[in-house]
Amino acid sequence: MYYHSLVATQTGNILLLVADWRSSSMYHNMLRCFSILFFSIGFLFGMWFKDHRKNAYCRVHGLLPLCVMTAILPFLWPNDLIELPIIAFSAGVMMKTFTSSQIENHPFVIFMTSGNYRRMLTALYYVIQGSKDQKKYRCQAVNYSFVVGSFMLGAVVSALLMRFIYIKSIWLITLSLLTIMVYYSSEVKRLGLKKTNL
User: Fold this and answer.
1) For the chain, which residues make up each domain, given as ranges?
2) What CA–CA distances, in Å, run from 81 to 6, 28, 148?
3) Which of 107, 144, 149, 146 is nearest to 127 (CA)?
4) Largest Cα span, the chain
5) What is the mean pLDDT of each run of 10 residues along the chain (198 residues)?
6) Whole-number Å distance between alpha carbons of 96 and 131
7) CA Rg, the chain, in Å?
8) Which of 19, 63, 117, 156 has its CA at 20 to 30 Å from residue 175's CA atom?
9) SS3 8
């Protein structure tokens, strides 16, 4: 935890606040409160933004704040009280932008893996148990395994990069976001989804 806080999982921040209230520094607790506040503001802004969208490219626009912030962050003078709120706000916007994301009609969460992990285990249980709709549960198990595995791989790679290139490891996020934005935009254009994939 670079900022001694989480930017996207506010339940974790609340638990850290409660668990560390006496032993943690007031500065770290303030960062966690800022994260909760600015993530919430970003999420609410994301709701407003989503309600006023005009075309399918709004999802790309929802990624821009986080993409720009992660791109310029290594060049800024280090200041947690400025960086963390901006990243938390951007994460809130992105979280709302991609709410209701699905893989083959099955919902998944983009920022955390707990719900995805639970769904993966549930699907695996039904596959092992031999439930009637084996094809459906196998497909779910594979899809959620990819999501959970990708999350874990991203966390490990980020941690390793952090040891060698420190804050510049955040450019992995920038690169991922740019890839998603380009791919999504090209698919919207190719499939003619500009007005329908809202």
Assistant:
1) 10-105+161-191
2) 13, 10, 31
3) 144
4) 58
5) 61 76 77 89 90 85 89 88 88 80 76 82 94 90 93 86 85 91 92 77
6) 34
7) 19
8) 117
9) coil
